[in-house]
């Protein structure tokens, strides 16, 4: 009888230990974190059709920034809404065992139609370091009420219509004049990503394509860093030595000494790894991509 009671007790304790809400645990270590959890918030639950609303997702864990890697972009399923602007940040507070890291995703949402708008639950995929164990977090569904659009003003007297006609005619003449001067029929208004955002997007693609091939990752990283330096600071790497590149970075950027040296370390190590045998431990490609991503995200925070 006693063995059966002991077995039932062990099973009950196992079920409790494997039941987790929105939080997950990862093994402790130099680059490990604990207690990862997600929360979401919306600035307003009732807006005018002409307004926008901010939706925010916050992922927090105990440990350094390198403890978790978010290698897949988030996908929002929206009803009556569309994404107008997106940004992400990562920051830490405290030290050692008391260090807390928070990664925040911010979305500026635009109404598409009046009524009850919905933001479906968002799945967040991550890798827990140092053993690259994959896990997922899930937000809750949120809604916001959108008012009907403000109706246009009713037709006025003939004098009002006359003035409207004059204004429209003047605008039309102005548009035609601008088109003639520029010598083209349309203007490209597509928003462009900053060089640092382009670099971070391409970095995630590179790591996924390279898998565990560190040499392939380093070769691609060298090309990405050269493209970033040219787009961000108008610096062509070519065959320049380290001292000359460092001098140009001092003149054309606001990077501190430590930031410049870190950037140059990655550049020249990637250049050398293209032409020599490279031995990599399991998960090295992922850890290196994570460190580079954290560095560039801090650069974004400092420039906002």
Description:
- With 304 residues, this protein is an alpha+beta fold.
- The chain folds into 2 domains: 21-146, Sandwich (Immunoglobulin-like); 195-303, no CATH class.
- Helix content is 41%, strand content 24%.
- It has helices spanning 2-17, 158-182, 195-210, 214-233, 242-252, 257-273, 284-303, and strands at 23-24, 34-42, 46-47, 53-62, 68-69, 78-79, 81-93, 100-111, 115-119, 123-128, 133-138, 142-146.
- Strands 1-2-4-8-7 form a 5-stranded antiparallel sheet.
- Strand 7 (81-93) and strand 8 form a beta hairpin.
- The longest helix has 25 residues, at 158-182.
- The N and C termini lie far apart (67 Å).
- Residues 5-30 have low confidence and may be disordered.
Provide keyphrases for this structure.
304 residues, four-stranded mixed beta sheet, Immunoglobulin-like, 24% strand, alpha+beta, 2 domains
- Tally of contiguous helical segments: 7
Q: What is the annotated CATH architecture of the largest domain?
A: Sandwich
Helix content estimate: 40-55%
CATH class descriptor of the largest domain: Mainly Beta
Helix and strand string, N-terminal first?
HEEEEEEEEEEEEHHHHHH
What is the name of the CATH topology of the largest domain? Immunoglobulin-like
Indicate the radius of gyration in whole angstroms: 26 Å
Silhouette = flat
């Amino acid at each position: 009888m006693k063995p059966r009671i002991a077995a039932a007790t062990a099973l009950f304790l196992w079920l409790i230990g494997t039941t987790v809400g929105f939080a997950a645990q990862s093994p402790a270590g130099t680059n490990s974190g604990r207690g990862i959890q997600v929360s979401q918030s919306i600035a307003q639950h009732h807006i005018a059709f002409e307004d926008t609303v901010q939706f925010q997702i916050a992922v927090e864990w105990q440990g350094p920034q390198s403890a978790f890697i978010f290698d897949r972009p988030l996908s929002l399923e929206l009803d009556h809404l569309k994404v107008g602007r997106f940004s992400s940040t990562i920051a830490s507070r405290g030290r050692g065992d008391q260090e807390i890291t928070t990664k925040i995703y911010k979305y500026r949402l635009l109404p598409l139609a009046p009524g009850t708008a919905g933001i479906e639950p968002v799945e967040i995929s991550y890798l827990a370091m140092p053993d690259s164990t994959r896990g997922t977090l899930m937000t809750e569904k949120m809604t916001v009420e959108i008012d009907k659009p403000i109706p246009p003003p009713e037709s006025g007297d003939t004098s009002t219509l006359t003035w409207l006609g004059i204004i429209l005619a003047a605008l039309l003449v102005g548009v035609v004049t601008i088109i003639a001067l520029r010598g083209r029929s349309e203007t490209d208004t597509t928003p462009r990503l900053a060089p640092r955002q382009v670099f971070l997007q391409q970095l995630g693609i590179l790591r996924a394509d390279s898998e565990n091939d560190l040499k392939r990752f380093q070769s691609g990283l060298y090309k990405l860093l050269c493209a970033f330096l040219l787009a961000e600071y108008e610096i062509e790497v070519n065959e320049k030595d380290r001292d000359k590149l460092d001098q140009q970075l001092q003149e054309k950027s606001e990077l501190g000494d430590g930031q410049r040296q870190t950037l140059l370390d990655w550049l020249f190590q990637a250049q050398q790894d293209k032409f020599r045998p490279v031995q990599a431990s399991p998960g090295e490609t992922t850890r290196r991509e994570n460190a580079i991503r954290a560095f560039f995200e801090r650069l974004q925070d400092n420039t906002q």
